Batch of 2 targets.
Target 1
Amino acid sequence: MNAPIRVTNNLEAFWMPFTANRQFKSNPRMFVAAKDMHYTTADGRQVLDGTAGLWCCNAGHGRPKITEAIQKQAAELDYAPAFQMGHPAAFELASRLVQLTPQGIDHVFFANSGSEAVDSALKIALAYHRARGEGQRFRLIGRERGYHGVGFGGISVGGIVSNRKMFGTLLTGVDHIRHTHDLTRNAFSRGLPEHGAEYAEDLERVIALHDPSTIAAVIIEPIAGSTGVLLPPKGYLERIRAICDKHGILLIFDEVITGFGRLGAPFAADYFGVTPDMMTVAKGITSGVIPMGAVFAKKEIYDAFMTGPEHLIELFHGYTYSANPVACAAALGTLDTYAEEGLLTRAADLASYWEDAVHSLKGLPHVIDIRNLGLIGAIELEPIAGQPTKRAFSAFLKAYEKGLLIRTTGDIIALSPPLIISKAQIDELVTTLGDVLKTLD
Ligand code: PMP
């Protein structure tokens, strides 16, 4: 039996994240249920999920293994501290996760979101160097158009002006290299762009500007997702890895979006064959159902604390909800679902079908680029002078009316459906989006 749907007329009390309440109020869009590939709206319509929620519901919605695991754990052990105490699900989950991570990445620190995972990784990087007697390594390097969540660490290393400019001085000792998005050479690339590996040399330039021995870590998204699906040119990530190695700098991959099967491999690190020193994950770790984030770290990093001097044997960092039992159960149920249904490699099977499907939108009005990798796609629209985000946002509203959830950032439409999507649903997604694009002014 369905529970009654709760509806309220007060659309002000909830201060919505990254949303203008004023605009939302004039046209509220509400989901009240979700199953597999679809949301149900408050007015009873089915909406195809073209974005896995916010890049997170990789296993789709309402998956029984996940909900059952959560119910069972909440009834059995709802909460236990992880400071000086433990519970079995935390250790089991960490062991299961390190079986999935690239070789050499053997330790898991739990947080509750991507933002917390990022800030944790940055702090671990700084503390690691200090533990090894290299406390002069305090600088962090990110990228323009990088998105690393909304904590102070994340917005400092991140490269989105609007997310930074309201909030004062941010962290000091942070530098940025350029992003690699280059439509003059790479428009309508299929898969990885051919041109632009040389953007990695920016890192050498920024390092040369400082004393290299002052740099603690470089953080990058293997694919910048939130800023519009910016794919790394062939050879770029390998070059970044080599430069970090040359100077003893830690490399952090922010895999909050690319982790857990989005590219057809467990992680982007596997897909690209480039192993960072730490990885940050969230979203797909619980298929979005319960908040959870994590930092995966190499043994050398963990060992610096475990075998350091007496005053350094613990990391002075953690959250009340680190390794929350119900979140751990959700993650275990999610990993079971991924394993049973082969979801961590399913994007590889669908990738060429998906690529052809999204590229079939080429030639429609205002489309200036289409890009794809794994089960990620993006359609970039020509900006309207003076109104930079109007056209894509109008596509978002029209798609929603036609029963399709897409995500937009600036003039870019981003697609990242749950990994359970069928070929027929890919066709439906692209047909609906094509119909929408044809109506844009
Ligand atoms: N890093 C990346 C790469 C992300 O895409 C996101 C979220 N989109 C975050 C960090 C922040 O995650 P959260 O919203 O869970 O804090």
Target 2
Amino acid sequence: QIPKTQKAAIVAVEGASVQVKDHPVRDPESLGPGECLVKLHCSGVCHTDLHAALGDWPVKPKTPLIGGHEGVGEIVAIGKNTTNSPVKMGQRVGIKWIADSCLNCVQCRNGHEQNCINVKLSGYTVDGTFQQYVVSWVNAVTPIPDGIESEAAASILCAVSSYPLPPTAPLTNVTTKGLTVYRALKYSETNPHEWVVIPGAGGGLGHLAVQYAKYMGRRVIAIDGGEEKRKLCLSLGADHWIDFTQCKDIVGEIKKVTDGYGAHAAVVTTASTSGYVQAVDYLRDNGHLMAVGLPAKATLDASIFFTVFKSITIHGSYVGNRQDAIEAIDIAASGAVKCHYQMKKLSDIQSVYDDLGKGKIAGRIVLSV
Ligand code: 8ID
Ligand code: ZN
């Protein structure tokens, strides 16, 4: 039985604290074709949700806003006159950042759904997963396979953008199927045994990037701050650890570890500008800077001379499409990549935001809803 009201975490206006309150559940009778109602089990909390609550990005979220884009739950209603739904009533599905895309614009037709001109963004332009019942779209939800718990799957839905490897790389113990479509992966052009630097490696996206990179045989230099994150990164297989709060010469250290040449790629997953600052300097010639972290108001300060002289590629990597999400979940369900998470309650959300803002969370917090 679907209730009339539910608990939801609501930000009333930009920058306001988040309040957990009673909120109406969308009447299933009012769902249109293609819409569905998902009863959520849990939702990961991403640094993006904090940016949304603060309203600090140049592209503004709706208000009042229910945030969240790493949700897993089950379909409890499908809109009338929905035809050819790829998902069924009762099926377990994930809600990711791209809540829906039109599939008809030129970007969608080219597979770049994240750049759809009619895109809907979960917890940003439409209400997201920090509530018990979320409205979603049958064509956009991600089916969750049986082999993975909802809590473990939640944040994988957002990890797609930080997968740092190319589809052309020799693959040993995996099928190419799982790999060809991740966006960052297509362009970082690294091979097994090559060096990938991951600033922000102890955070939500970063700790998953470390694992995907190791899974594919890359050597990883993890950069983050503090003992807890050091332990996490090394336990996930990072080959070298740099504490940005202590190291006085990050470029020198990376050069030393990489035989003087510098790293082949950097996948920057910090929410702060500082993580970007020296990337062009510690990359080797023909290196790739994969920009994933989204500091609010920063510009990328890279030497134009050395970007050209060293033939550096700077590449913005923005989430992934529906297929990317399906395959990222598949790899996680196979056990190769695990989200390191701690469970909290929806009512703890404000304190989770406070900790995220201070860089205190190693891995992810997942909220039960
Ligand atoms: O599609 C995308 N590009 C995408 C998708 C999802 C999230 C981008 N993001 C963005 C978020 O909006 C956010 O800006 O990626 C950024 C990181 O998200 P997250 O992983 O959810 O954030 P986190 O868990 O807070 O991790 C960030 C880590 O960076 C470290 C922190 O200690 C933390 O562990 N860090 C900081 I702050 N400054 C650093 C520095 N100078 C640093 N690590 C290394 N060097
Ligand atoms: Zn996210």
